[in-house]
Amino acid sequence: xxxxxxxxxxxxxxxxxxxxxxxxxxxxxxxxxxxxxxxxxxxxxxxxxxxxxxxxxxxxxxxxxxxxxxxxxxxxxxxxxxxxxxxxxxxxxxxxxxxxxxxxxxxxxxxxxxxxxxxxxxxxxxxxxxxxxxxxxxxxxxxxxxxxxxxxxxxxxxxxxxxxxxxxxxxxxxxxxxxxxxxxxxxxxxxxxxxxxxxxxxxxxxxxxxxxxxxxxxxxxxxxxxxxxxxxxxxxxxxxxxxxxxxxxxxxxxxxxxxxxxxxxxxxxxxxxxxxxxxxxxxxxxxxxxxxxxxxxxxxxxxxx
Length: 305
Description:
Elements: E1 2-7, H1 13-20, E2 25-31, E3 35-37, E4 42-44, H2 47-55, E5 59-61, H3 67-74, E6 80-84, E7 102-106, H4 118-125, E8 129-136, E9 146-153, H5 160-184, H6 215-225, E10 231-235, E11 238-247, E12 258-261, E13 264-267, E14 274-281, E15 287-288, H7 289-294
Parallel strand pairs: 1-2, 1-6, 2-5, 6-7
Antiparallel strand pairs: 3-4, 7-8, 8-9, 10-11, 11-14, 12-13, 13-14, 14-15
């Protein structure tokens, strides 16, 4: 079967490699254009583009799946389109261009967390179990019939980066099996069951910590927004990032109050304190919370004030 694969970030690379090692022809890899990275803003190919180059696969670079991209893909006469975190929508007539349409590897158990940030939203909500789903792409957002899914228990302390990496690894063989099933006619898709929840893209506001909330929900929030857009509050009138935190059994503190409890640096919340592990004050690099605290000349500083 002749495939077109669309993807951009590193989490799509395991799927591309899994398909490339299988029996199907990948006629082209579609990915977003080179992006400026680093302090020098050097134009850099996407992780998928780099992997495609290593595999010797032709690449189509397009920031939108517009008429030009559609024409280039149609000229390849693909049997099936496969998309994993490309970063753009597939609309008609491209949606119907491959003989068997498009399938999508999505990092949630659909219909829970339809949208751009399923892993982040699952962590913020405190989901104990998530997973990966392979479904038929339709015009409605992540609403197509599901071919297969794989459940995954969320590890304690996992950030969105950790969870995305894990789901990318378990999703790749799942996707490959579905492609094989479509090719030999054994794959069967079933309608999604249950009430959908939405997972819109995160904004900077999603990382703003309200330290009057309970400690558990704050930890879920920090996990979900790490590394992007990042958890943050304020200190001394400037943004203060919380890069890593954990639960603490220290005595209660007023929300936002920071103190040392034994070897821990803790901050008060609406319930029990949180242990601050790694922080980043404005204008400085990431540092151990203890080093930051010892360098202050303030008795019991307050975050978020």
